[in-house]
Amino acid sequence: MPSVQVRMDNKTTAAELDAIAEKLLKCCIDVMTITSGKSFIIWNPEEFYNNLLQRFCFQRINTFFSFLFSHGFRKIDSGKWEFANDNFVRGQRHLINNIISDVIEQEVLYDQGMELFKAEKLFARLVKKVQDQLPPHNSYPTSKLPFPTKIYEMVDDPSSDAIISWSQSGKSFIIWNPQEFCKEHLRRLFNTLHIYFFFYKLKIFGFKKINPKKWEFANDNFVRGQRHLVEIIISNDKKKNDQLRKQDAREKKNGGGRRIV
Predict the structure, then answer these.
(1) How would CATH label the architecture of 110-239?
(2) Could you tell me which CATH number the domain at 1-91 has?
(3) pLDDT at residue 75 above 70?
(4) CB-neighbour burial class of residue 138 (10 A; exposed 0-12, middle 13-18, buried 19+)
(5) Are the C-beta atoms of residues 217 and 172 closer than 8 Å to each other?
(6) Longest distance between any two alpha carbons in the chain, whole Å
């Protein structure tokens, strides 16, 4: 069987990710032993590298481990080359689709994160002179409400429409005047002048920049006249953090299991 070279960059399509995942998982299923049914072990690394790696999956060993990591596998036994993923289970091949879906979702989130990162840098340059002229940060009172609630109240306030407001559709908001936003609103959100913190909060709560010509941001649950949906944004973030804590606890329970680094 000829070798198959696998490559991925930030332009990889969903179909290509699907094919890559199938190659990775075929390699795991066909050439390594699955013990408990919830993990697999490479018993002979030298034989695996010399005779099986290129035949089934990858040209280089670092590519193989890179894809294990990107597909959510973790090394669970410090004394063995044993790896696991919650959706990689003997007799339940249909769960592989969950792994593929997670990879595609991470690709989308990465692209959105890069867009916000570039937007943050440009926004920071626009407001730098304003930031340098502002008084000490402790001169403004701040609210203890969650970020999504704070930004909703700010966007929904008609007195601020010249600075920040709903878009025409009511499914996104626009910062019309970055300098005035920084001067009048930013520190009422966070009691800080660091614009990166505003963009960091946008990112972790699932907002995305949707218009390259405007400072326009959206979230499926951030809609004019439907303030109750904001609770879903907050709840989703809490669920994500809870899942990360449970995963950490599970990995510690499984003998110090950890992601491949």
Answers:
(1) Orthogonal Bundle (1.10)
(2) 1.10.10.10
(3) yes
(4) exposed
(5) yes
(6) 70
